[in-house]
Amino acid sequence: MDLTGVLGPSRPLPVRVRPVHGESTGSFVRRLGRANGLGLASFLDRVGQGEASQDPEQVEKYPQYTEMKVNAAGRHYLAVLSGRDVELLKWALPSLADDLLLSGAGPAVWRWPWEAEGGHLVPWCALCAHQRRVGERVWLMSVDSWRVCGRHLRWTDDSRSTVPEAVSVAPLTECVAAHRHRLRLQGRFKSVGEELFADACQVLYQWWGYAPDTLVWVQRAWSAGLEARSARAVPLVVFPEAVKLAWLMLRFEQTGLRTPRDRARWLVQVQHQADVWGVDFAAGRNALLLWLERHSGTAKDGAAVASGRRQVVLAERHNRIAARTGSLEQRSCMPAV
């Protein structure tokens, strides 16, 4: 009888694996086990007690679908087995933070919830992995369901499909430009810029829902090797318009003018842009009106960001609904789609 999971490991495994910053715990333990000739099911026996499928092949797929949760004792076991300090593991693996551990101060336990908690499992850019000499697939815990690697211009998401596993956005020059403009927006206006981008995404997701066959979006999906009407394609195909709309929202906020006439004037500006984009304005009008309604008042909580001589002040209702941290859905005042 193997009592390792009960008594705890006493020394590191022979082969050490360097964790990737932001990596999921499940991804890391799978790589650590494989490096030492252990399947994930066998490795789990050394980390404590828990329940998993009787089929080792199914267990191997867990890191792609959900995140491994451990209690404090289980985290200590991982530190010993990996030969890494607990503080380093906490820094590298987000799910090992104190507030995300399973409760209980007793024996080491682990669990694989039905869905990942605290984020999305998004594959790490394979080209980044190659540069770091990591040969295995790595899953990151991402606050959002997709990521853009600015270095290699690759887009990955939390889809369980591996066809394609990643999309090169290099041929999608408008998406490359959008990524840079988003970073500029966030860099200059911090959380306010990110919240406006989150609002713009939710507006565009609704917009797409009413006009999924818009030619520019269909062509982008095809260029990316994605099904034009798939939910997976939506964040990527509307990305350029979402960034541009976020900047238009910023200009509206910068003026500080929120009368019905000001809102009507801004809608006309967006309509002109929609014509330039080749997108049916009528399909997104209701979502835009809802956004304006939630940004019609002034801020009372002092939420402002300096921008030269001006300040960007988001409306009170937006600040009541939107979170300061979390995913794009959480940081938006718009209903999630």
Describe this structure in words.
This protein is mainly alpha-helical and 337 residues long. Helix content is 47%, strand content 9%. The chain has 15 helices and nine strands. It has helices at 4-7, 25-35, 40-44, 56-60, 62-65, 72-82, 86-92, 126-131, 173-210, 215-224, 234-237, 239-255, 260-277, 281-294, 316-321; strands at 69-70, 110-111, 120-123, 139-142, 146-149, 154-157, 167-168, 304-307, 310-313. Helix 9 crosses helix 14 (281-294), helix 12 (239-255) runs antiparallel to helix 13 and helix 13 (260-277) packs antiparallel against helix 14.
Secondary structure layout:
Layout: H1 4-7, H2 25-35, H3 40-44, H4 56-60, H5 62-65, E1 69-70, H6 72-82, H7 86-92, E2 110-111, E3 120-123, H8 126-131, E4 139-142, E5 146-149, E6 154-157, E7 167-168, H9 173-210, H10 215-224, H11 234-237, H12 239-255, H13 260-277, H14 281-294, E8 304-307, E9 310-313, H15 316-321
Antiparallel strand pairs: 1-2, 3-4, 5-6, 6-7, 8-9
Helix pairs in contact: 9-12, 9-14, 12-13, 13-14
Kindly list the characteristics that best describe this protein.
disordered N terminus, mainly alpha, 15 helices, 337 residues, three-stranded antiparallel sheet
- The side-by-side strand order for the widest beta sheet comes to 5-6-7
Which structural class do you get from the secondary structure elements?
mainly alpha
Low-confidence stretches: 1-5, 301-309
Biggest sheet character? 3 strands, antiparallel
What's the total number of strands?
9
Rg, Cα atoms, Å? 23 Å
**What is the beta-strand fraction?**
5-15%
Query: Count the helices. How many?
Result: 15
Q: Element order, helices and strands?
A: HHHHHEHHEEHEEEEHHHHHHEEH
Average per-residue pLDDT, rounded, comes to 92
C-alpha end-to-end distance? 51 Å
Helix % is 40-55%
Shape: elongated
